Amino acid sequence: MSVANIPGLYSFEYKAIDYLTYYVPFLKNYLYDKISTRITLALLLLGSMSIINELFITIDMFFLSKSTYTQLKKVKNLEDLLDHELLVDPKYFAKEIEDGVEQFESMQNFFKKPVHVSHVSVFCAIINGNDKYQPIVDRPLKFSFEFTPEDFESSKYSADYGCNLYHLKAKIYHFFKDSNTYKQLENSGKYDLSKLSISKSIHLYNSKDEAMNNEKLNQLPLCFLKIETGDKLKCEIVI
């Protein structure tokens, strides 16, 4: 019986089978029986639809996220981000409606949120605050930080946004105090390291070279300060 004489759906099935057996020979093992053939075709169709759906979701997520980062990077005064709607508007977060039952944000609002920062590199220049802010060491120290969920717990805002600026400054402070450079400076007796502090000594700059010294910014998540995963940041440690 020729394909042309087989009506409707059956005609489509036979065409699909002919196409698949010609271009994907190993599928012959699954297309020898009418029932198994239909099951195989249905699975292939559902799989194709799932891939297409995931592709569109990924594209949508990419453009929504890109739009958010574009808006954040246009803000000239970082303090203006303290009241950003993505930080304070409840529609962007899940909420508990009953005991143990949560109502989650819409897919669009979920994708609109910036992605938390998972790791950064920080290049720290050691600066003499008593000598016209001249560098003390020839080469800046490089610290690499990876952030885990434990680093997000101290954040004032949702853990979805990752760790905040103060947490990164604290890491820089402790890494510096544990470094050989710190021990050498301490042993030299030339510098008073007793006044070293997170708030006054760690001067950090984002990827746009904007200073993040205002203490109001300390509670902001890194992803709201124009910082993205993999960025290389500059820091001045003033002693």
TrEMBL record:
Q: Which domain of life is it from?
A: Eukaryota
Which UniProt key words apply to this protein?
Answer: Membrane, Transmembrane, Transmembrane helix
Which chain regions cross the lipid bilayer?
Answer: 39-64
* Name of the featured protein: Uncharacterized protein
Look up and give the organism this protein is from: Hanseniaspora uvarum (Yeast)
